[in-house]
Automatic annotation (TrEMBL), chains A, B, C, D:
Keyword Transferase: yes
Name this polypeptide is given: Glucokinase
Top-rank EC class of the record's enzyme: transferase
Classification via NCBIfam families: ROK_glcA_fam (TIGR00744)
Organism per entry: Nocardiopsis endophytica
Length: 316, 316, 316, 316
């Protein structure tokens, strides 16, 4: 049985685990993330690998590393990772030199998406798009059973196709990007705007935020929606509709069998997915005759998914 | 040297040819398209195959058929082809039974796009999107060197992702589809609207149309633009900008190395492509650091491309 | 008691009536509209005035004429009236010469709106906007109790402010005009698009149109909605929402006390007005604290309103 | 010669002046604005009035007060003035009691706009819209020679009609308000976004801001544009286009003879107005035949305009 080690390098901590071919994590380890020094980072990763191998007879087949930031198309360098304080860093070779095992590097979102595809809500299909609704909107494209990265490693930046001409400004410098409408930040902005414009309707959300619209945060919106608060449900309906429209656009282009929706906002489950499905069914081109893709909630949590996906990608 | 036969079934005629592995058409034949009868259609195709084999010693390796309409994901049936008068037709088996050769069926737009990828403006790269700007906007996705059809055979309907919320109505039943802004029809609509609103500025276009804005047609807009008419150039600039924006959206999702732009509107060449490139460079996410995809004009004409692409796909 | 004569010049017929100061029509007359000849048109109007005066002892105080087309700011000339076949026609003097009475000319939409303001759904307020939802969207502004025509006589072209950047094309040459979303034509377009994209949902509408989406017409959509057909109600909800948004925009600019909604689409009454009111209440700026304007259905029919309004304006 | 006293109550200071019938300020006085206490505020105003009357034989005819915040339709109370810390304050009576003269209260933006209309860039016409492009976008409607306030005193909130469906979020709780595109804040946001997305192009703007896009401020953008910096000019072109589109929308509704454009952004003069005029001419409905309204830069500075306008309104 070929075991591999998966590593998830995040902005504050590195999580690693030994993973079996069925995607189960057998053993785990973690360490804080060193910032701004590629050698230290590689050493921290190598330390976790050593820790996981302690007492094991058999060497793992490979080490898969999912990292924050943008990875180049050869998957050996970090091009830019703002929250790691790194740019143009030869991360793969730095680690390989230390662990004496094959090392595969991948963007962390891709790694987590791959885990969903292989062992989570995407299993059993060959064409899927994994959409992660967090602060922004990220995505991973699986086409004919493979993760596709595009020519320059930047495929799946689905949060930055333009949804609305002259729409809300995005940190990427553009306007109207999908992630300004369908992300966790969008949910919060929706709730705050509602509270500012219609304080009576948003009384519960406002109360939880001490009366200040700007104090409203995502988890409270989710909680309120789960307890049936009409204002919170209205916010989820609005965001869900944008999610569904975006999936319809992706379906026109990619025609996948399934969409897997993960990230913080997806924790609300059907409260988000049901309006998304309805919007999707009303918006997708050719809807009278086409078979509609499934829209499912992600099943694995973020950190385990990152470890599992990185580990599994290391075998391919 | 393995020769194959490529067939392009259009609404009015069927064009066929013997094609060599370098994508050259060695011999051609054509026949009118029978309407509304799958058996007659298959017989017409078989007749062309026989005609092309006449006097040849060696049998072709296979027959590739590109057909108008929507082909199912098993590539054996025409799901719906309005202008052939066919629905749910087992076209592959009907032809195979008659020619006693392997038969491969593909959507005609995909076939032509594949020819561009293999032997035209797309050669030499592994990730490309071929965009066809005709009456509508069609597309074909080449990812990691393969034509990708999506789970249900409908990938590449890029003309029907939503560009503008509440935008212009599309025949598909939606609003704001990209093809309402970036197609040949959009170019004509732009010219007609300009002529209606600013007849002086559009004097030349109006004159060529006998004074009636609704009489303006695409070829005249192209001709006027080529001769420097400011109104026609303004129309191309507008459409080109929409083309560029759409390519930027596709780049965010797919990150291809190259875009190949074909179809009737692309005959204007740089008059269209230059504003498209500028809009692309201003609109693509991450433009400060990313490598920009090439945007090139298609090189093969429509009909030869259909024959060549179908022939080449038959070998895969 | 000062009686006046009101005349409504439409594309096919001229309707005239003797009107008392309370806006009641005491006597009526009509004639076909001569096309393309200002003298004949004036003679036809004069003939109706003579007919109405027959047997009356007292001369009317004045003649008010509401006419199709665009009237200049001095209200003496028709600048352009396509469906009368007239341009730059000195209509007031032509008529005045014949009837030997003071003649006042007004655009017919303004005249009808004025009647609504004085004797219909607008009575009792000083600041109102009368919105006419017909083939297009027309409007009349009443500010501080007076009909306001703008500096060049073109105020109230509210159907042509831009609702959607790059939106649906308008006959005026622009894109995204309000009338492309909130008019009777918009209602029909909505129903046709729905029938094309979701034939099952629109079964009733399709059936009434013999199965062809393009055969669906406005009165049938209204009838179906009145009988509870969900597809038709969905169309009215969509159009009503656009109506409400437009009124919210007008409120931001003009802050009237009341909106009076007339024209063919308004015949559906609350089926249209209720979604309009809801959209208005959700969209108007400052909605948490501002007093919301009334939104009421027009009370007078089109032709009588035209006669009554023209007659009343003649006294001012 | 009837002199009046005009008072401009701003967030930090109160400016007052004695004004003659030609709109000249003969004498001036100022004081800091007391916050949060209506009586203190009235006393401060009364103190300035006394100071201005000192040594004058003749009493002024009236006192006109322009104040920040929202004034009710009877023009006697401040409904809400956030930056004065006042709500529902009977400001007119508080002042009148102290100065023993007729007192007229008006919103400060309306007062300044009125001055422009009477003595500045709007003089000589009867129908004008004064547009103030500051942090937000404000406006004042002059129809048939009178300032129009709407039924509830809120007319002219032109910055809050919706320009873009689902557009940029506005502090008013809505999305896509005009002021998010055409204000000084919009200019700054444009410059910052440009600097973030295309740092090379925006090198000069970035340099002046110490390299941080978020450090870019309006005056520097204006200065850079005046010195020909292409990036700054691009920002003004973008904002100017939105200004022109908005004026075109207002023209469709109100058809004024003239637009007077004031506020901080307008200091750039033709750099802003020329793209605005071009966009206006391309966007206004009926542009092939209609007479285009003038678009002129405001002539009076903000504070004098506030004093002069308030003083002049006091006489009406």
């Amino acid at each position: 049985m070929a075991l591999t080690i998966g590593v998830d390098i995040g902005g504050t901590k590195i999580a690693a685990g030994t993973v079996d071919p069925e995607g189960r994590i057998l053993r785990r380890a973690k360490a804080p993330t060193p910032r701004g020094d590629g050698e230290e980072l590689a050493e921290a990763v190598a330390g976790l690998v050593r820790e996981l191998r302690e007492g094991e007879d058999t060497a793992p087949a490979a080490v898969g590393v999912g990292t924050a930031g943008f990875v180049d198309e050869t998957r050996s360098r970090i091009v830019l990772a703002g929250n790691l304080g790194l740019a143009d860093d030869p991360v793969r070779d730095r680690i390989a030199r230390r662990v004496d095992l094959p090392v595969v590097v991948e963007n962390d979102a891709n790694a987590a998406a791959w885990a969903e595809f292989r062992f989570g809500a995407g299993r059993g299909c060959r064409d899927a798009v994994v959409v992660t609704l967090g602060t922004g909107v990220g995505g991973a494209l699986i086409v004919d059973g493979e993760l596709r990265r595009g020519r320059f490693g930047a495929a799946g930046e689905i949060g930055h196709y333009r949804m609305v001409p002259f729409g809300r400004r995005c940190a990427c410098g553009n306007q109207g990007c999908w992630e300004q409408y369908a992300s966790g930040s969008a949910l919060v902005a929706e709730a705050r705007a509602l509270a500012a414009a219609e304080p009576k309707e948003a009384a519960r959300l406002l109360e939880a935020a001490g009366g200040d619209p700007e104090g409203i945060e995502g988890p409270e919106v989710t909680r309120a929606a789960q307890e049936g608060d009409p204002a919170a449900l209205r916010c989820f309906a609005a965001v869900g509709e944008w999610v569904g429209q975006g999936l319809a656009d992706l379906a026109a282009i990619l025609d996948p069998e399934r969409f897997v929706v993960g990230g913080g906002v997806s924790a609300a489950g059907e409260i988000l997915l049901e309006p998304a499905r309805q919007a999707y069914a009303r918006a997708v081109t050719g809807r009278a005759t086409r078979r509609l893709a499934d829209i499912r909630q992600a099943e694995l949590g973020g950190e385990p998914a990152g470890i599992i996906g990185a580990a599994d990608l290391a075998l391919r």
